[in-house]
Amino acid sequence: DVDTESGLHVGHSGSSSNSSLTPSQESPSPSLEHVSTSHLPSSSSLPHPSSSSFLSTPTSLSTPYPAPLLDGDSDIEAEVDLPKLEKFLSEEEIQKLSSRERKRQDTINELFHTERTHVRVLKVLKHLFQDPMAQAEILPRDVIDLLFPNLDEMLDIHTQFNQAMKKRRKEEVPVSRVGDLLIDMFDGEAGERFQQQAAEYMRTQFLALEGLKTRQKRDNRLANFLQEQENNLACRRLQLKDMLPAGFQRLSKYPLLLESLLSYTDPNTRQEECERISRALERAREILAFVNTAVREAENTERLREIQRKLDQSSLAKRKDGGTEDLKGNLDLTKHRLIYAGNLTWRLAKGQKNIDLLALLLEDAIVLLQRQDDKYILKNHSIIKNLTKDDNKLTHSPIIKYGPSMLFREVATDNCAFFIVTTQAVGAQIYELVASSPAERKV
């Protein structure tokens, strides 16, 4: 059972009914609470889908696409469906297993098989997409790096894990120990490396997929390349956009498998094994949370970039009075960190029309924006205090700075509404804002 990194010559004649692979092999990614990722590299250097590197159309192909070589790679030939335990154990060996041990062996079998199929997807990405794209110059190098930022490192990590599993299956029939393999993958320096590499690989995937979709519509050469490669039998009816999220799907699967494995491992007879699996489970959850946060922060960074591109501060720039620099049309959202963004309604006095807002919760302030066509308007709002006197107005700033002078109070009669009271350079201000739901208000 020899694995090669370069192997599998497969024809491009389409896919057969017994070679289909559905994304459901890996569980969908769950929503998690976030942890700090301040030490992750900045995404400021990443090209945006609308940038010229994504949208410029290259010249026609001067050479054929390099033929993928995947011959002799046993991982590429991995079964689509989870193989039955009878493939690895004799009927006599299976009959000796207790009910609990049988379930444990089934879980180990699933862990080993799904790791192998994940390595398979990574190899297909490398040999059918990344390498041919680079060699035939289908996309600029920076765009390829955005799609597959550190694919070689991720393939190396998962290949080592996969090989260790194969070796253990040969050494032990049935497999009695996996805790040491899990510790080697998830804990210590190796676990830290896995965490950092996984974060780098997945944090900008949403941006890469959006860019690929946008470019594919305008670039016939890219569209033809993808169609030809995706028709390869090795893709098993999956498109590139279906395979790229495999990394996060795999990361989401680990805690589920390790939870199951731990539940079927007897702590009385396998105390050390249980301790190792428990530690690996803890680290698998931490790594998933770390990567989930990295992805969310990258999405928030890109959202601020997009809003900044459409931000209209002209009314603030015309101000002749004093105020902070942020209130003179110089607000650069990309220099801030977005914590949350949501829609709010500014409830005004009776007789005045309410204002729909996009509220940005930054690390140091709340920014209230009005949508107008394709723009986000940043401007002061004049609120009439007394409808009988048109000159009796209060000016409200669109930027509410956090500080000791800022108070938050819920509206007792409306579980979606709240007050913000603040004293800033322009004077005391009271905002009555309404969220779309009680849950949104809590945020």
What fraction, in percent, of the residue positions are helical? 40-55%
Main sheet attributes: strand count, strand direction, barrel closure? 9 strands, mixed
Q: Outline the low-pLDDT stretches.
A: 1-69, 321-326
Outline type:
globular
Give me the secondary-structure category: alpha+beta
Instruction: Report the portion of residues in β strands.
Output: 5-15%
Number of helical segments with 4 or more residues: 14
Helix and strand string, N-terminal first?
A: HHHHHHHHHHHHEHEEEEEEEEEEH
The Rg value, from CA coordinates, equals 28 Å
Give the N-to-C terminal Cα separation. Answer: 53 Å
Average per-residue pLDDT, rounded, comes to 80
Number of strands: 11
Structure summarized in a few sentences:
This is DH domain-containing protein. With 443 residues, the protein is an alpha+beta fold.
Report on the architecture of this protein.
The structure is a single chain. This protein is of the alpha+beta class. 43% of the residues lie in helices and 14% in strands. Strands 1, 2, 3, 4, 5, 8, 9, 10 and 11 form a nine-stranded mixed beta sheet that branches. Strands 6-7 form a two-stranded antiparallel ribbon. A hairpin with a 2-residue loop joins β3 (355-362) and β4 (365-372). α7 runs parallel beside α12 and α11 packs antiparallel against α12. It is globular.
